[in-house]
Q: What sequence folds into this?
């Protein structure tokens, strides 16, 4: 049975070494100016070092350029893509067609992974962007298992699915934290506004706390729970999904490394012996629950939601 790639978001060049030992196959890195919601900032020198380290161990590095680029930044894309081509990045992750157009001129041999966060919901759209030059489509988090498997059956490109971590619920190019803060007397308010990595939008009615932060790309509101399907991987592996992503945003290096090791074990066992995976999957889930932060519950996201037409 084909093993999916285990794709992880590291927090530093040094962290990549730990993740390689834990079993990661590939890494998503980048800098805030070009990439969205990355766990850490990787300067150009960091990107170069990360690629050299990963390639020395037979691993891959994908650089995020999935921000929305207004006219004032479009002129920068050619030069950054030329740099990534020079340091031999394995692929660029993009959503804005401006990156696709720039890549044709500046790095025509660069592999492209199409990721618009929410619109990769059917095989026809994935294949459309494949015909435009994309090698992979990163599926939206809001579709269920049946839809994912149907897409893979008809896809002419690689398919990537997030299997662990928080997901983005909302993004605005504007700086909205100050505006939310003024609404303290209403249903929603920002808590811990002075702590950049520990701010929450609190919805008392639903008893949910949504991580919220601002960066160069605007305001981001994240899901109240973390996806975890370490005990539900068999269907995806049997369907031949190409890449499983662990998103480590707002998590510690130790947490990401441990989670990577657990998913490595789950993938290897399930690929070799599904019956053995069936026997140990509950234990693996329990090990994830034991290290899960107290304010971050686990759920299965949209994987088992019913599609309503």
A:
């Amino acid at each position: 049975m084909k093993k999916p790639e285990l794709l992880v978001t590291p927090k530093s060049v040094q962290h990549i070494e730990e993740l390689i030992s834990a079993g990661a196959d590939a890494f998503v890195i980048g800098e805030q100016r070009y990439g969205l919601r990355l766990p850490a900032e990787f300067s150009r020198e960091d990107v170069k070092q990360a690629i050299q380290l990963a390639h020395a161990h037979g691993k891959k590095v994908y650089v995020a350029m999935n921000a929305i680029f207004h006219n004032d930044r479009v002129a920068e894309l050619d030069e950054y893509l030329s740099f990534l081509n020079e340091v031999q990045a394995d692929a660029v992750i993009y959503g804005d067609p401006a990156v696709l157009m720039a890549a044709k001129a500046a790095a025509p041999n660069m592999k492209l992974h199409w990721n618009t966060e929410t619109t990769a919901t059917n095989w026809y759209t994935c294949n459309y962007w494949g015909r435009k030059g994309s090698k992979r489509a990163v599926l939206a988090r809001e579709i269920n298992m049946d839809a994912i498997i149907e897409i893979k059956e008809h896809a002419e490109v690689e398919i990537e699915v997030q299997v662990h971590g928080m997901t983005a619920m909302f993004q605005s190019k504007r700086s909205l934290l100050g505006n939310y803060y003024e609404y303290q007397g209403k249903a929603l308010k920002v808590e811990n506004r002075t702590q950049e990595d520990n701010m929450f939008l609190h919805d008392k009615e639903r008893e949910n706390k949504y991580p919220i932060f601002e960066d160069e790309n605007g305001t981001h509101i994240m899901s109240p729970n973390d996806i975890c399907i370490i005990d539900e991987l068999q269907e995806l592996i049997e369907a031949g999904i190409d890449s499983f992503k662990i998103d480590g945003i707002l998590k510690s290096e130790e947490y990401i490394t441990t989670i990577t090791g657990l998913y490595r074990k789950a993938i290897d066992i399930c690929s070799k012996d599904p019956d053995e995976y069936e026997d140990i999957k509950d234990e693996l889930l329990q090990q994830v629950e034991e290290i899960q932060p107290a304010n971050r519950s686990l759920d299965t996201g949209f994987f088992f939601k019913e599609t309503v037409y």
Remarks:
- The CA atoms of residues 144 and 303 lie 4 Å apart.
